[in-house]
Structure formats: structure tokens, C-alpha cells
Amino acid sequence: MAARRAGRERLRRQKITIRQLLSNTSGLFITGLAPELSERYATRATFAEHRFDSWTVDELLALTVSQPPIHEPGTASAYSNGGFYLAGMIIEKVTGNTYAEEVARTIAEPLGLTHTYVRPADETGYPEPYPRAYSSLFLKDGVNPADVTAGNWESMFEEPGLPLLDTTEYNSSWAWSAGNVISTTSEMIKVCNAFVSGGLLPAAQHRAMWSLVSTEGAHWMPHASYGLGVFALDPAVTGGHTLRGLGGSMQGSHFAVVGTPDGEQTIALHTNIEFKTWQVLFRTLEAQFGLPAVPGV
Description:
This protein is α+β, with helices and mostly antiparallel strands. The protein has helices spanning 2-14, 18-23, 35-41, 44-50, 57-64, 81-95, 99-108, 153-156, 185-197, 203-209, 279-289; strands at residues 117-118, 134-135, 165-166, 181-182, 213-214, 224-226, 231-233, 244-250, 253-259, 266-271.
């Protein structure tokens, strides 16, 4: 409780809005880089030791405010899981229900989804059938994540060619309301079509979801702008097509679903290794939508 009180006080002084939490313009630091998190999962040895650790909401709040803001609220873009943690806490406070219950009530049930749910904090497996997950995105054993910089990071990672590590069974409660959802590609296509076309939200909320901000300089997805938990690709690289979507990445998994506003063309892409480059996604979109070659990916 002390962590929650301290976090609320710090956020009160910063005057962060809910819109800024959801659009990644809150100024909160990039929570995924927090030492308390990276020290558990950054190397093969630490991942093996901590892969079944369970995170509480209080611990995630403490993680969110464990480092100072990186910019004033609303002045720039930086992807932060902490913003979504706070949004999940707000949902629970306002509704009196758990975040998982609200995802079921407001998204899964209206869209008729039967395989989409927030993963419980103690769950470490998946419903059948499911693919195995593999990772090679680790620092060398013995490297302190705090020593990694923009200038030396390449030398800090494991040498290419090492065997992939099976990361299928592990506890992903550290993601919680930032994306700890189990689903299928077909059901995520339904979600994307509803988000993109306006088939789920009232008109005003739909417009708010797609009020976009630039991600330039945010070290996130290239050639894109960000709404409220969703992204749109720059028409300059899509040949004038309007393409919108959502996605995310965790240990041993990378997912994205992208479609046109009319729902006529939607494609879902899942790999059983986590994000390393956007090349696979953009080459797939080029083939599906007849785009010109996207530069720089």
C-alpha cells in the first residue's frame, strides 16, 4: 500500500491524463528497461532462475514509478508498459471489477470471443493447441544490464548461432494490463476489425482511439503513429493505403494484426520468437496489400 500511495503522489504532481497513459505520451520512463525487471530476465541464467516469478499489482506500480519521468506529460512519445499498468488500476478502481473481468465484459463477450482472456497471474502454460516459444535475445551471462548503453549494446548480447532457448512455460504476469492476453490469430482479426471499423465503441470513443500522435524518435515501430493502444502506418510508405492495427512482443512471441478500415483486408502475423526486426512484418504487409518496398526495415 505504501508503494501505491507514493506512486499516486508522484503521478499527481505530474498531472498525467488517462489519454496520455494510453497514447504513451505520459512521460513515464520505459518500464521494460527497469533494472528490477531486466535483472530477472536479461540473461539465460537469470531467465531460468526467475521464469516462474509472479508479479503483484503493487510491485508493478512500484516498477512504474521507480525512475524519474523522461519528459513532461504530452510533449513526446515513449512506449511505457507502466502507462498501461496504471490504466488497468484505474479500470479496477472505477468499475469495482478486475481488469480481466472488464476485458471479458467489454471486448470478449460483445465480439463473441471464446479463446481470448487475460492470463491469470499464476498461469504458466497455454490451452491446447499452441506453438512452442523460443528466444535468443539475451545478454551474455555475467553482463550487468545497467552497463548496457546505446554505444555498446551489440557487444553485450550473446554471440549469433547459439541454440534457441525454449521459453514456452513461464509466468508473464509482469505484463498484466500492458498485454498479458491469450488469444488466437482468428480472434485477434475480429478484435482488429472491430477497433479499426468502429464496430465496438461509440463513435466519440472510436474517434478518440484513433487520434494519432507521432512516434518519431520514440525508438518504436518505424513509419507509424500511435493512437490509444493502436497504431496506424504512414500513408507515405503504404502507397496511400490506410492501414491500422495492434500488436506486441514478449519472450518467445511476436504478434501483429493489420487491416483496412472497411475490414475487407486484415492479416495477422505471429512468430514463435520475439521481436528483433520489423522486416518480417513489413515484407508481409508489402505482399498482402501490394505496398511498395518500405525503406529502412
